[in-house]
Design a protein that fits this description.
- This protein has helices at about 50-55, 80-95, 115-120, 130-150, 180-195, and strands spanning about 10-15, 20-25, 35-40, 60-65, 70-75, 155-160, 165-170, 200-205.
- It is α+β, with helices and mostly antiparallel strands and about 210 residues long.
- The protein folds into 2 domains: about 10-115, Ribosomal Protein S8, Chain: A, domain 1 (2-Layer Sandwich), CATH 3.30.1370.70; about 120-205, Fe-S cluster assembly (FSCA) (GMP Synthetase, Chain A, domain 3), CATH 3.30.300.130.
- The strands form 2 sheets. A 5-stranded antiparallel sheet has the order 1-2-5-4-3, covered by helices on one side. It has a 3-stranded mixed sheet with strand order 6-7-8.
- The longest helix has 20 residues, at about 130-150.
């Protein structure tokens, strides 16, 4: 008789990000497996994410970003991280190991309703890009995205128009004081080098 495979419990550790208002809480297991990212604020419809709903009940939490194996939590200025970091880590461990639901319905399954289209910044799917836009999207995905995710954020190509590239920043990268420097010194220079003569500047849109 085959032994049942035991699933390791979620083990959570906290990791700082370049954004002092955002802390990244990492699990040894995936939280979402569809490759999508999910971002919620207090005023959003939280019905699709029981985890985000519970986290945003904390009076000092202003934004929750969920991707792969981590949750990036943005706090307000009313409290310091050292006062709440253990509380949040314990909550996440208890919630996840208690089989609490992270996401109820994948964004890939959700209907593309008019309400969803109007809410927030629409990020085109990779398949919709062609030519130079497809090349930019691939460069961002291969060279930039892993580093951005390690900092608790996400980046997507929004549009390309006559040399100007606009990207959507989410999670810890949204509103981060160092994001402008990262864009100019990192992303913009890389795109100019890899696509000579086709890139003039890169600008960020906070998602």
């Amino acid at each position: 008789m085959e032994k049942e495979k035991t699933i390791a419990p979620h083990s959570i550790y906290a990791e700082s990000t370049p954004n002092p208002a955002t802390m990244k809480f990492v699990s040894n297991r995936y939280l979402v497996v569809d490759g999508q990212v999910y971002e919620y604020e207090v005023e959003d419809d939280l019905s699709n994410s029981p985890l985000a709903e519970r986290l945003l009940n904390f009076p000092f939490v202003s934004k929750v970003f969920i991707a792969s194996n981590f949750v990036a939590i943005t706090k307000t200025d009313i409290i310091e991280w050292e006062d709440v970091i253990h509380q949040l880590r314990d909550f996440l461990s208890e919630f996840l190991n208690g089989e609490g639901k992270v996401i109820l319905q994948s964004s890939l399954e959700q209907n593309n309703t008019e309400e969803n289209q109007e809410k927030g910044i629409k990020t085109p799917k990779r398949e919709s890009f062609e030519g130079i836009e497809a090349k930019i999207a691939d460069i961002l995905d291969e060279y930039i995205r892993p580093a951005v995710e390690s900092d608790g954020g996400a980046i997507h190509l929004h549009a390309y128009d006559e040399g100007k590239v606009s990207v959507v920043l989410k999670g810890a990268c949204s509103g981060c004081p160092s994001s402008t420097m990262t864009l100019k010194a990192g992303i913009e220079n890389m795109l100019k080098e890899m696509l000579p003569g086709q890139i003039k500047e890169v600008e960020a849109i906070n998602g």
